Amino acid sequence: MIIKLEKLNGLEHVIGDFVGAPHFRLENDNVTDIKTYKYLYQNAKDSFRIPKDIVASCYSDCRLTHFYTEDEIAGFWKKWEKNIEG
Questions:
Q1: pLDDT in tens, 1-59
Q2: What is the pTM of this model?
């Protein structure tokens, strides 16, 4: 089974069927918003910068383009656009 992690929360039933566990449930256990370091983590995400050529290389990789549509990849670019330099 191959799944997109960003779709994970909507796949409990599918995963349960796949592993033969009809009452399978996911639990959000490592949630940054309830951690003591949540502001430090947010600051790190906000100040992180990565060169555009590295992002372009990652988002054009054949493994990524095999599993994600052009619209999904454009969404990834948009999500991180404030962190891309160059």
A1: 999 988 998 999 999 999 999 999 999 888 888 999 999 999 999 999 999 999 999 99
A2: 0.72
Q: Which residues of 10-41 are buried (b: 16+ CB within 10 A; e: fewer)?
A: ebeeeeeeeeeeeeeeeeeeeeeeeeeeeeee
CB 25 within 8 A of CB 12: yes
50 and 85 co-located in one domain: yes
Please state the domain count of the chain: 2
The dihedrals phi and psi of 55, each to the nearest 5 degrees, come to -60, -45
Q: What are the φ and ψ backbone dihedral angles of 52, each rounded to 5 degrees?
A: -60, -35
